[in-house]
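Protocol check, entry for the methods section draft. Step 1: assemble the input record (protein sequence plus ligand SMILES). Step 2: submit for complex structure prediction. Step 3: store the structure tokens unaltered in the notebook. Ligand used here: flavin-adenine dinucleotide. Step 1 record:
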Amino acid sequence: MKSQRHGKYLLQHKVTQLVSRKGRIQEVHYQANGTYSKIEVKPNDYVVSTLPLRLTTKLLGDALPNELIESADEIVALNDLLLVFLHVEQSSLLDESWVFVPDPKIIFHRLSEQESFDPEMIKKGSIVCCEIMSGPSRPLAEKTDEELCASAVKGLERMGYSDFKLLDQHVIRLPKSYPVFRIGFEVVLEELIQTLDQFENFRSIGRQGAFNYIGTLDAMDIGYGFSAWLINGDSQQWQKERERTNHYPVLD
Ligand SMILES: Cc1cc2nc3c(=O)[nH]c(=O)nc-3n(C[C@H](O)[C@H](O)[C@H](O)COP(=O)(O)OP(=O)(O)OC[C@H]3O[C@@H](n4cnc5c(N)ncnc54)[C@H](O)[C@@H]3O)c2cc1C
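Step 3, stored output:
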């Protein structure tokens, strides 16, 4: 028999506070449609979160020692990603699907072209995506969209792609999206995660939730693993589950 669907998705709800008492999350406060409200966490409820880890430490307020919140701020470092999309007249610019560009003189570090993945994604010409990383040592996010596009075009020319006609350009900015693993971060991260795992009815998982440099398939694997553990597991098995999901290869 087909199982019944349960549950409800609350979209556009911003979590503003996680209230804990006696080692359990008791309330999830949120803001939606301009008003504040809260969800009472019942004794049999479990809170699994993919909220960004640094945010979680702040949402928990006094429940965590100040030093831990401060060290989370230090080790959970994230670079901004700036995506420059160039619409060119040619039906294809690159021979490859994507190209990594380890040349510091070129502003982007990766190129990809949508038609390589699905030619039907674009009706006329081709769209080339130039990915630009921005962080404290290379603060490119402060540049205007026009400056970023001009530098991306220069980068393409430097690579030998000079014979193309630009039809349009667009920039999408993804602040704090790429993890930066600083030397020694593992010890502090583990302490932070272990402290959060002390909450009886709360787990912080996923790319942002555990500062884990993963892809979508890994995120799904973690989700399935969490569900299986919640149904069958005990706290010792949870440590094994953390260990199992800590070492996915970084693909890009
Ligand atoms: C730029 C970029 C490119 C990527 N490219 C690929 C790729 O090509 N292939 C691949 O496999 N993976 C890719 N990934 C990785 C993939 O996106 C992630 O692994 C996956 O989305 C992780 O899922 P998650 O649920 O752990 O975290 P997320 O999807 O990041 O979920 C965290 C959620 O928390 C929400 N949130 C934040 N603050 C609040 C708040 N206060 N209240 C409520 N919600 C909040 C965010 O809106 C977000 O939806 C990419 C990631 C990035 C950043």
